[in-house]
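User: I'm writing a short methods note and want a consistent example. For Choline-sulfatase, I'll paste the sequence; you return only the structure tokens, no commentary, since I'll be parsing the reply automatically.
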Amino acid sequence: MISEWLRMDGYYCTNNYKTDYQFKEPVTAWDESSPYAHWRNRNDNQPFFAVFNFTETHESGLFEPYGFREIETRHYHSGDRNYNWKNKGDAHANNRMAEAETPVHLSKDTKFNIPSYLPDTDLVRQDMWKLYNNIAEMDRQVGAVLKQLEDDGLLDNTIIFFYGDHGGPLPREKRLIYDSGLNTPMIIRFPKKMHAGTKDNQLISFVDFAPTLLSLTGKKPKSYMQGQAFLGAYKAKERYYIHAAADRFDAETDVIRAVRDKQFKYIRNYRPEQGYYLPITYRERIPTMQELLRLRDEGKLNEHQSQWFRENKPVEELFDCWVDPYELNNLAKNPEYQEKLKELSAEMDRWLSTVGDIPDLPEEDLIKKLWKGTDTQPKTAAPNISNQSGNISISCDTEGASIGYKIIKRGEEAPASWEVYQNVINLPEGATLLIKAHRIGYTASETIQIK
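Assistant:
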């Protein structure tokens, strides 16, 4: 994980607190990952990399009964371990304020522009109000964290990235490969407001974040990283295309790939016999989703709204995202756009080959490929240990494994976090050494203890 590279360079790395990685992280990932993780827990003058997740605008924030998540109040308390949110600290999404006690940040009479792929009904407008009320609360939470930076004298010595993790939370947004599901907000604040008010129009993808982070710390991005740095000492040449993929959504699956330049998007559907809409149980708790299904069943959706519920999909789709931002008018068979179709189709083939993506590969075969042809998740090899008069060297036969260790000094408690192994360890007399190796995608090794 990128945080390990930063930890090896002396950064104090924290995550507060969501960890939806789709894999089990190694113990070396963070100095702390919890609802109390904060840069204020680091050593004096230690550089830091701190991640704060603001989940108030998650799609679950549209569920009924409506109310802000109690755990989100943590952002106002700057890592104070004595603070506990209501209901005994339950972090579950269902631990919410009652609607009567939930702050109202904007008038319920606020008028909204409803996108044409959603019906303009009272229920949809209510969900839109909830969405923007959640955004207003999230904005206050972000402001609280920035105020903590300012109070610590760090605001003008810190690069701040603010971004979403996908498109909007309403139906036909999150999980879809249209811009409504892919396009995310991003704001970067540099020390002393450098470049304030400027807009960067280059094409940026989430795979660019890791190399950009390394570049900003003066480190060359790793050759195996798929993305490229868009800032810093190793800023790359602006790209012409970005790419996207969609496969599994909870219990439902599809196989879709996309490539986009600044104006056009090309989509390839590998399951054209399958409709776009998938009955995802979690999403169907959103009242707007329930409204869409009701109106669909009653035959009351218009052409734009009913497109999502088509029984099948075209193999290829092409959209002019400047003229048609909601991607409703497929140009793939339009004679005027055949050159653009060929260009983007060829770029998709190049990308799939470069990253080793085989869209038609069944999930069970993909897992076997990751697990070296077996049906059982591999286990990280036990660390190899050489102890020369208390000078301990460690290695692991599993390629790509992270090695973590803890030194427990005589008469003291074990440290809360694991250190990333880099160099020979000189074990103090009477101390105990704990060692663990873990490659992402494998199970971790057993913990080895040396006294």
